[in-house]
# Entry
Amino acid sequence: MKILKLEKGKLDLFASVVQQFGEVHAPTEHEGKFSFKRLNSWSEARLDYNRTVLPPRKYFLPPRETLFKYREATGYVPATEDLEKRVVLFGVHACDIHALNILDEVFGKGYLDPYYLTRRKNITIIGIDCTPDEHCFCRSMRADFAETGFDLFLKDIGDHYLTFVGTARGDDMVIATGPLFSEVTHSDIVEYKRRSSQKCDTFKLDLEIRDLPEIFELEYQADIWEELGEKCLSCGNCSMVCPTCYCYDVADEVKLGSHDGDRVRLWDSCLFATHALVAGGENFRKTRSSRIKFRFYHKQRGFVAEYGRPSCVGCGRCIEACPVGINIVGVINRLRGVEHASTD
Ligand code: SF4
Ligand code: SF4
# Structure
């Protein structure tokens, strides 16, 4: 992998050049919350953010999208708006890059999702270092650094960013901005290693994922699932903010008095009461306890069996978003019989 360094003071210049690779979107702040948005000017970018409310998956699997239209006069009309739009997502954290790699497994292998895959091809990812806060546990989930899934990744070493080039497109961006980059020196490497080890010590949440699927297997009848069902509101906030959740619903929206309509897909949540409702009126997960249990089992046990890793990257969004304080780290540590000071 090619590694160079970029002076921090020249980041705005770099951002202005990479516009030739697509519309630049980055985290911006509004009333203390962060969200990825198209930048009007580089000064809006807040690369020191902790987490965005919605993860970058909103660019690849939008909350609502039209899959195709059907018209009596013209028949089937594919919906391709925005699919080919080129975007540069500037400042994606390692955990969210891991989450995209997980979505790649789901949408890019077996049944190929052309909508997701086209967007993935057209959206450039520039990753950036982060500082863990009280909700982060990406290190426990092995998602605190990214080896793949980005075009460039910027690691803070003081006055410069070490810039890891992940793809040919990343290399093109470096070539396009050539004089801004310089060779890495021995003292840069020393500083990188010092910061990397220092970062490991800053995590406040810790979770052991070794043999977690087995623990889940053993605790299928544990009382905690009923307790969580009593508490959970089935609001679905935890799924909506999760970078790895990918459940969606498909609906036909027919225009009244016509045979014309749109087929749309919309984000869904396994916490919603209707998620497991099927034709004939049977609901396989009627109770809130069965739904929250399903969410935990899918992420920490079923996904491991199918894809070899949990579908959680430890971003902490669900902890922050849950209105009744259900804390994934606290739940898992309780299942393990390990209490942690920072979780209820
Ligand atoms: S389950 Fe929670 S912590 Fe894990 S990836 Fe989803 S939102 Fe983040
Ligand atoms: S955010 Fe909390 S209350 Fe809402 S569905 Fe998720 S676990 Fe339940």
About this structure: The chain is about 35% helix and 20% strand.
